[in-house]
Amino acid sequence: MWYKCQGYFHVPHEGVTLMDHEEFRYFRQKLQKSQREMAQLLGTSRKAIESYEQGWRNIPAHAERQVLFFLVLKMETDVHSAPCWEIRFCSPEMQKACPAWEFKSGQLCWFINGTICQGKPQTSWRQKMTLCRKCKVFTSFMNHLKLPAGRRKIVVRKAE
Hints:
Blueprint: H1 21-30, H2 35-42, H3 46-54, H4 61-74, H5 84-87, H6 92-97, H7 99-102, E1 116-117, E2 120-121, H8 125-132, H9 136-144
Antiparallel strand pairs: 1-2
């Protein structure tokens, strides 16, 4: 079922990268965790964390979700003044069909699968994050972390 929303755009399924290795390392450092501590939080090995940060392995969707969620929990202030359904001007019909409305989580809509974004439920994390990285709700979260939400380049300076 399609719902009325603020326009539609194509969601690419192939070749879309999620969190990259530089972003993963930056977020781990922002959380003030060692590789060992991050491995414990994500339920994986230190070698896996090292591989993610070196770019040898792709960061799995479940790890990306957890990292973003930990960042939200660690933030000192609420970065959103309004829930997503107000920011995106969702119709009452769309609100009632959306899990973000059901669970009163308008500031975390990007974290919840099945939200009604761009008129239909998003069925995968990859598809969802492709939309979220262009959405005002997610971009305000990323801006709070001092990162743009779209494709970005994090400059990692080596200690001299």
